[in-house]
Protein 1
Amino acid sequence: MFNLVSLDGYFARSNGEIDWHVVDDEFNKFAIEQTKSFGAILFGRTTYQLFEDHWPKAFTDPATSEDDREIAKIINDIEKIVFSRTLQSVTWNNTKLFKEVIPQEIEKLKNQEGSDIVIFGSGTIVQALTNLRLIDEYRIMINPVILGEGKPLFKNIDKQLKLKLLETKTFQSGNVLLYYQPGKTV
């Protein structure tokens, strides 16, 4: 799981806006390298629709930066899995639609050969997979901003989950990336 969060734990404003994300050249270089390491992306409906609306256009838009064009190519080509009860179909290339989170299906995906699977955004999916203990690593990038309100990344978690800090990375922008591995539930 990779998410950008505010210092007070929100991954989006209440209206879903992410205009507060601190993104610069250093972040973009990191994003390219990280995205290259993924074999599939899991999405909830909202994040999927945001990505589907942005990345295919970004790839062909001459105004798109070289870094974003590279990210767009990777994301356009990668396998994408969307969890949605309301979408009837998906049209973005290499995308599959699941109507619900089925733990056995997630386990099958995780056990396939290949690169890592990542969740971007998609708070509801992060929460569901956290409750099912199906996330192997949490990568949380804390942005140097306090929103005061918004959509909390970890809401409705049914049991406390202890995490082990694996690594940290500090960016010149003030972003701090924390890599955690789940420990035991309490």
Note: The CA atoms of residues 106 and 166 lie 24 Å apart.
Protein 2
Amino acid sequence: MRIFIVDDEQLALTSVRRILKHRGLRDVEICDNGKDAIREIREKDFDIVLLDILMPEVDGLQVLEASKPYKPLTEFIIITAVEDIDTSVKAIRLGAYDYLVKPLEPGRLILSIERAYERKSLRTGLAVSGSGRGMTEIPAAFSQIVTRSPRMIELLNYAQVIARSGNPILITGESGTGKELLAQGVHRAGPGPESPFIPINVTSVPETLFESQFFGHSKGTFTGAEKDHMGYFEQADGGSLFLDEIGELPKNLQVKLLRALEEKSITRIGETVPKPVDVQIISSTNIDLAKACRAGKFRLDLLYRLNSAHIHLPPLSDRLQDIHLLADHFLKLACLRHNRDIRGFSPEAMLALTRMDYPGNIRELAQIVERGVMLSDTPYILPRHLGEERPVAATYSRSLCSLKENDEAHVAFVLDHTRGDRKKAAQILGVTVRQVQRKLAKMKENPRWRTLLD
């Protein structure tokens, strides 16, 4: 069990660490500020985080809110010197497992840690139950998502677990990261996979038509209402309603949506009798809703309703190992769409793709590949077809070689792409940093790589 303690008081850190050590829990790390804690939690895989709330600059709730979406299987236990019901409720809503008040009673602390670890183990097991698979495989409901990223696969397994509850799920992430595709997977993994999935971009609904579009209207209610109309809630009854770009919903309309979620019923325009609806709400946004709440642009009570569970999709820059896989996937789709017979990418073109920036994330990569397919006048896509005119180092051009030389070339290629960052290279290669270091030590014996590696 790997435990992380976050507290700005050194005495508290050493005291809790001593309690854990006395109970045989020795794999423990500590941190004395919230800012560093967020970075450590995101970069490492802790089982349990013991988190103090009252810290300067970045408090415990901010750490929890900024970390939980990135590490959904990590369990957080809140520790504070001040018992406050509102704070404890907010902590639980943000994903905390438990809430303990100082001074800590050792037995109570250990019991909370043990139960939190049991829940983590249960959730991990549920994510792969019934299939005999490990966490290295994508759940069937999310098979349309193309990835080999361990972080993405962990998120998808977590999404499969929380989808079964039918509770509201909030998906966040930059534009183009695949939020709607994830929402479709959540629906397939949920309690009614054969029921309707109704996707709505809330920015496409005019304010004046909001109630009519979402709740429906009866015949003759207004000019043009020639027949009864089922709103989105009724259309999704028994299934899922996906609210894309929910952060852009005007505040005067947020209260109307909130009322429907709270009452689990809608009233058509022109009618007085409410109709019950059973709908799972899946929403997405690329803005920080918590920040929007603080700025008065989004209702906090609506955020609580939407955020029963939170999944944050990483940008493509955090999924470098997926670029090759995604590029091949989009190549096949584009060839079918445009009736082209293109065999693949030249090594230089693939290198160019891995070196590009993608502010539009996966959507932008798909567009670049499709453009390459349409412009290609050769059996393979070349850098010029991708709009990449810069010369690519000949070091990585392919020729007849042994498997060993090809293996070394790939390691050198990845290391060059990460600009010498061995930790990132290890992540892309799917090995440990130590394995990369051993490989590089052997490669330095070859004059071909010595200049690059020195």
Note: Confidence is low (pLDDT under 50) at residues 127-134, 391-401.
